[in-house]
Amino acid sequence: MKVSQTLQENWKDEVVSFSFEYFVPKTAQGVQNLLERIDRMKELHPLFVDVTWNAGGASRQPVTSTNELIGKAQKLYGLNTCMHLTCTGMSQEDVDLALSKAYNSGCRCILALRGDALVDDEKWDPSSEKFMYARDLVKYIRAKYDDHFEIGVAGYPEGHPEQHDSEILIDHLKEKLDAGASFVITQMFYDVENFLSWVDRCRVKGITAPIIPGIMPISNYASFVRRVKWCEIAVPKDIMCALDSVKDDEAAVRDLGVDIMANMCKTIMERGHIYHLHFYTMNLEKSTKSIMDHLGVTY
Ligand code: FAD
């Protein structure tokens, strides 16, 4: 299965599909819980599942690795997987090892990223001149593995903390696609109008690859506020006011969050003609499933 081809075919017939992102838990119990969750969420028929690579720049080694989780999702549960891989703290040997493990586990898709800075570092530093940008990783994977892996890359409708000029950012996105990537997953966002006009601007610049919106469910007020601040994401006034009005009632935030996100997804599909939703599950299933139920797309 090639994600980009499947999406291009599905979108002609308005067929809706999903993908679920997970991160590597810190404890053995967390890993066990996650595996059970991945198994249950398989019933929602994701087109693929993906696992982050040291997102947030943790300095401590987790109890398991992205490679291991990808291997289990692929082999144990028979899911199509997409492994995130970053340049952060990676030598060429590290990249080679990660790719060969992914290859051996049957994974056929890599989300190639530059990566977050390590938590203890003030800014992102390359550990190898070979891998300065995600573009370099895309080129490297293509050169080493030819077409074996399909490659996805990250896009930023709201800008990137290190580059606020959106036109330059779109040029950098195009470089990654020209280097051999074939689809884009976006950073989370809550301003759909901005997202739709950003997609139009990408198209004007010659980006033809499928652009997949990153959907971050809202299930807790405090973590929502923390996350949008950290990622520098704008929240439309009406959404912020509505959430503010119920912020002390956890169940009300969850219900409202489902409404907000389901409406967002509907607009993306109806106006953007984009029929794949990429859920940042945060290793939880309830909010993602509720949004899908609300959209009437669980079966
Ligand atoms: P790049 O595209 O390389 O861009 C990084 C910066 O360099 C940008 O400011 C860009 O404008 C600039 N740049 C790019 N090319 C050039 C050039 N040719 N010349 C000059 N400047 C250039 N992080 C993790 O650590 N692990 C993960 O698993 C992870 N998963 C993610 C998944 C998604 C869908 C998204 C949207 C982000 C994810 N991130 C993850 C975060 C990401 O690694 C950071 O946002 C990182 O700062 C940028 O990564 P990138 O791949 O977009 O980098």
Description:
This protein is of the alpha/beta class. The chain has a single domain (3-295), classed as TIM Barrel (Alpha-Beta Barrel), CATH 3.20.20.220. It has helices at 3-12, 28-41, 66-75, 92-105, 134-145, 166-178, 192-204, 221-230, 237-245, 250-272, 286-295; strands at residues 17-22, 48-51, 81-86, 109-113, 150-155, 183-188, 211-215, 276-280. It has an eight-stranded parallel β-barrel, surrounded by six helices. Strand 4, helix 5 and strand 5 (150-155) form a beta-alpha-beta unit. The radius of gyration is 18 Å and the shape is globular. The mean pLDDT is 94. The structure holds flavin-adenine dinucleotide (FAD). Residues 52-55, 84, 86, 88, 113-116, 133-135, 154, 160, 162-163, 169, 172, 175-176, 185, 187, 214 line the site of flavin-adenine dinucleotide.
How does the SSE layout of this entry go?
Elements: H1 3-12, E1 17-22, H2 28-41, E2 48-51, H3 66-75, E3 81-86, H4 92-105, E4 109-113, H5 134-145, E5 150-155, H6 166-178, E6 183-188, H7 192-204, E7 211-215, H8 221-230, H9 237-245, H10 250-272, E8 276-280, H11 286-295
Parallel strand pairs: 1-2, 1-8, 2-3, 3-4, 4-5, 5-6, 6-7, 7-8
Helix pairs in contact: 3-4, 5-6, 10-11
The chain binds flavin-adenine dinucleotide.
Flavin-adenine dinucleotide binds next to β3, α5, α6 and β6.
Q: Characterize the overall form.
A: globular
- Main sheet characteristics: 8 strands, parallel, barrel
Bound molecules: flavin-adenine dinucleotide
The CATH C-level class name: Alpha Beta
Provide the structure class: alpha/beta
CATH fold node name: TIM Barrel
Q: C-alpha Rg, in Å?
A: 18 Å
Strand content: 5-15%
Q: Helix segment count?
A: 11
Number of strands: 8
Q: How many separate structural domains?
A: 1
CATH architecture: Alpha-Beta Barrel
Q: What is the helix/strand order?
A: HEHEHEHEHEHEHEHHHEH
Mean pLDDT equals 94
Helix amount: 40-55%
Give the neighbour order of strands across the main sheet.
Answer: 1-2-3-4-5-6-7-8
Low-confidence stretches: none
